[in-house]
Design a protein that fits this description.
The protein is α/β, with parallel strands linked by helices. It is built from 25 helices and 26 strands. Among the domains are: 64 residues, no CATH class; 112 residues, OB fold (Dihydrolipoamide Acetyltransferase, E2P), CATH 2.40.50; 97 residues, no CATH class; 244 residues, Metallo-beta-lactamase, Chain A (4-Layer Sandwich), CATH 3.60.15.10. It has an 8-stranded mixed beta sheet with strand order 17-16-14-12-11-10-25-26. A 7-stranded mixed beta sheet has the order 18-19-20-21-22-23-24. Helix 22 links the parallel strand 22 and strand 23. Helix 1 runs parallel beside helix 3 and helix 8 crosses helix 14.
Amino acid sequence: MVLALAAWCGGVVLFLLCPLLPPPQFPLLLAGLCLPVLLARRLRLPALFLLGACFSAWHAVTLVHARVPLALEGMAVRVEGEILDLPSLQGRRTRFHLEHSRRHGQVGWPASPVTLRLVDYGRTEGLAAGSRCILYVRLKRARGVRSTAAFDLEQWAHATGIAAVGYVVSHPANRCEPGIFAPVAMARAALADAIARQITPASTASVLSALAVGARADIADAQWTTLRDTGVVHVISVSGLHVAMVALGLHAVARLLLALFAVTTGRRPWRWLAALIAFCGASLYALIAGFTVPTQRTLVMIAIALLNHLRGRALFSLESLLLAAVVVLLLTPTAPLTLSFWLSFGAVALMVLHGQLQRASTWPARWLGVHVALALLFAPMLAWAFQSVPMASPLANACVVPFITLLVVPLLLLGCLVWAATPLLGGILWGWAGQIWDGVWWALLRIESYSPVLELDFRPHGVLVPLGILAAALACGPLRAPRLCWVFAIGLLYLVPLRQPPPQGEFEALVFDVGQGLSVLVRTRGHTLLYDTGAAFPEGGDQARAVVLPWLRAHGISVLDLLVVSHADLDHAGGIGSLHEALTIVAEMGGEPAASGMPPARRCERGMAWQWEGVEFEILHPLPGALREGNDASCVLRVSGRGGSLLLTGDITAEVERSLLREGHAPQTEVLQLAHHGSKSSSSPAFLSSVRPALAVISAGYRNPFAHPAPEVLARLDTLDIASVSTVQEGTLRIVFAPEGPRVASTRRCWPRHWDPSP
């Protein structure tokens, strides 16, 4: 049974690594061929593995084909659906999911209902949890940037079943009305609003709302930082532990009441009724908390544990854990794409293992020991995902989890139960829960101030994660010399960097996928230069924080030897502040340093030149003393080494290109960054003919409002037989200037996934 369950789960999970999507009918055809093979004992496991892969493939085909058609992207379409989750208000915009949405009017929309992730800037009247809405929206496929360590929007959208993203268009027909069949969503919204009104300060209210109804949008960044650095982020979500404790408490109370009933009536106690009450109570809590994927997993595990209890078996075993995984994967085959899937199942598996190994220990030793074991298990995953491991995690969890699970959550839930009937009593219970949380928060702040966080200088290779988990499992057993040797050897692998710097005289360039903007990193053997920072977002944040800094941190780069900001446009200079906060920057220069918001820095001028490890750097524009502004103030930088040269042009126009040609400063180059994202006002035929690059690089955003790159520019490149690559189609580009010539690798081409959207 264990091998059969593992084979099916393995097929589901391993298909997610497949780079290509099969034809729509192929999974069903292959599954039909595998079913008769199940009768053969020797071929049963391979057949189950293929059936799992077919099921995962069929689900992937369904999700991909449910996306908004490319022909409808950018069009204003009329959709109808329900808001079943809590909308998130951020400044002047409201984010929400429109579930079971269908399109009205023209053909081309998927036949089955889909989920849309939308933003409303106009404060549509009635838009709230539980509403049924008819809206005019502009949609596009969920297409994000592709870069190492950056948030993967496309994977997240595929894992959560998002068919399209977009925004609400102002239209007189837009309307939202209270839904008839959404009482849970409306109750969640009412409870969240009541907690926010009755509990002060707002920081405490936000945490209580997260624990009660799963509303985490109002938790401040500083709070998240403290929770992460102490290793207790999981206690803020409606985690498996909270749902399990609700089930355990209800089961204990129900058993006591049924035992009293049996004594007074002389009947046999109904053990199954206690299990049913416990499961129903846990299910109600999961519904009020949003019925997220983690709570669904927990409910499955609770059901299996209760069934095992009724049958007189151990609550959890390897077989029951695999059975829970099968049920979860049947509900959500894409769940393994999320880190929480592995953390939750890994935690349960390790707790079962630890409980079996430490049966003879005292309960305080077992309580602290299980948190040490969990910290060891999570360390490899956290090191890979966040490059940091909270050293105080076992102590913090051992101290605060009992207060939150046994006091804060029960008081919160009791308050929610009585609030509708007696709001005063509900508010009192919430107030007590808030006071206990304030004490817990004080303890967490003390722990944070005295405990270090192990920060890695680079991101470990993904292959090391399963090896690290193996080391954690070995460390949880008896500490014999061979085990310690293996644990120590695997730990040393985490100190090996991902990639070595270029050799002497060579360099590499990273053209980051930052959407409609530009950011290029140039690395020599011992120095690092960043040309432009990417854009800033109107709602806050920037591409430097989202894309550039995660890559730098993953590769152990904490110092920039030179920051060059071509000019002050927001799509080139939007991340300067984030870079100053996170990095040590030795020197800076820019085309418009004052307008860019940079500290006193040198202005780029022709004639500036330097050399790093045999690689030549030269500024070609602007002229000394020239007072240009805007695009034509862009620094033009040429980098040349043994493997060729790179010309970075910023946003210069054809006028500057003509000036460079007249003055003999448009030398031939192997790789050219196409000016102004491929705008038709740049990249003139004469300039391209003079520079004559083998490769033109275009940094632009998907479906950007300027239609970059311009068709005229692409036609010029074709006429001159110049190859081109774009971050839109390729993601982040890595160009290695080696002696045999430049070599180009791209994120999308090197690591394709079957859910990647079409260009």
